[in-house]
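Comment thread on ticket #2218

A.B. wrote:
> Attaching the input chain for the structure job we discussed in standup.
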Amino acid sequence: MKKEQDLTEETTAGQEPEEAAKAAEPEAAQEAESASQPEQAEQPEIKQTRTEPDPAEQLAAEKDKYLRLYAEYDNYRKRTAKEKTETYSHATAAAVETLLPALDSFSLALEAACTDEAYKTGMEKIYTQLNEALKKLGVREMEALGTPFDPNFHHAIKQAADTEYEEGMVCQVFQKGYLIGDRVIRHAMVAVAQ
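C.D. wrote:
> Ran it. Output below, let me know if you need it in another format.
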């Protein structure tokens, strides 16, 4: 090391101070590097061991994922089935609602006096066919006459002083009401006894 210093002094003696400082810098860096190397060598090498996850934990995690996915699919299947049923019910109700005025007209036509017996029989058959078609769709007529007034099913358009029925009972039906299942398609227009 002393020889190196003597060489450095000889080379720096003939140089200007700035050049001598630049020449001394690489030597200082080498000395610092050599000083730090023994420290690194003294430190034990840290081994990074990679631990494998427990197969039972992996299985439990995969089973949990599977169960969650199955539950989501089951909920989706139930929701779409319910939506399909509701869509069918709404479409049926809308179609039936447009047919009800024609059914009302048939009912009025049957009540009218008619001298042609063949014509009247034909009208009754058509009316029966319409009612059967509605029954196949799940549509049924509301029983209103003689029942207690219920605003969920009846639309009261007048009150009548009728001695035949008790107070609050439907005494007259002006327009029939219809249901699909428990859902009201059209409220019955009624008169309520006072």
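A.B. wrote:
> Thanks. Noting for the ticket: The CA atoms of residues 138 and 160 lie 33 Å apart.
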